[in-house]
Design a protein that fits this description.
- By secondary structure, this protein is an alpha/beta fold.
- Strand 2, helix 4 and strand 3 form a beta-alpha-beta unit.
Length: 327
Amino acid sequence: MTDTSAPFLTPAGPRRPGERALTALGLAAPADNPADSSPHVFPDGGSWRTEIPSVEGPEALAIVLKESLRLDVPVHRVSQGSGVWMLSDAEITEMAEACADRGIELCLFTGPRGTWDIGASSRTASGGAGLRARGHDALAGCVEDTLRAAELGVQCLLVADEGVLWTLHRLRERGLLPSDTTLKVSALIGPVNPASVSVYERLGADSVNVPSDLTAAHFTEIRRVSGVPLDLYIEAPDDLGGYVRMYEAAELIRRAAPLYLKFGLSKAPGIYPYGAHLRDAALDTARERVRRGRLVLDLLARHGADGGMSPLGSRLPGPLNRFSPKD
């Protein structure tokens, strides 16, 4: 019997999912438009990096590090969602040291957010002010968290408020935060158009988590005005839509580079703010997020599209456009 599968499984170069089989049936996709490709890369020349989100403490981090070695999943960044305030100094130090040993960037969320505050507007149908820091005290709490984390060796902070972002950027510019501190915008307030992405970049963002339902065309539009690294859930948690975009990973890299591929998890319980009562869920989901990352990397490899990853240990975004801190 003639083996008819080989031509479809061993393409000569990068290909789209199912490309050769569909072409044989007269169902070929239109050729890529070179003008759609992002002209930007990370300063190390890479197009993409990886992130494991929702790593809620040292125990979950240990599982991520162990599983990433076992499954050969390269990790550039791990992020935590509960907040600096939900970790002790010893826990933060342990996480920072473990990540430093592996050349992985650790990103912790800054303090008070509207969804855990006494304000009722975030619980209305419209969502009100959402995650933003309500009032001076909440802003001050975010600053306190940031300074504490930086003193304990954390180099990346996750923010969910434009004012907090601008304030932390100004502190960085004045030398009150280390100059290599990076600021990451949360998925929960992610911008959805080119102008808003550009504003976050100018306010001090070093990477911007955009919503996972943006189309390929949206990414091309963003890349015409901004080169700030973007973070994107390839699989999103249910509260962010539950989207699973594994088969689009290569096209998303082409359109949105420089891009952090975030390996989230749908159909998983919420674990923010994390505590020991959620231990089993936190550890099980940490393990599965790494496995999901392996599945995405395997897809990229099968499509011949797994090249262009930043070297492990890379973390800085390169030169970006900023508003003047004196404005």
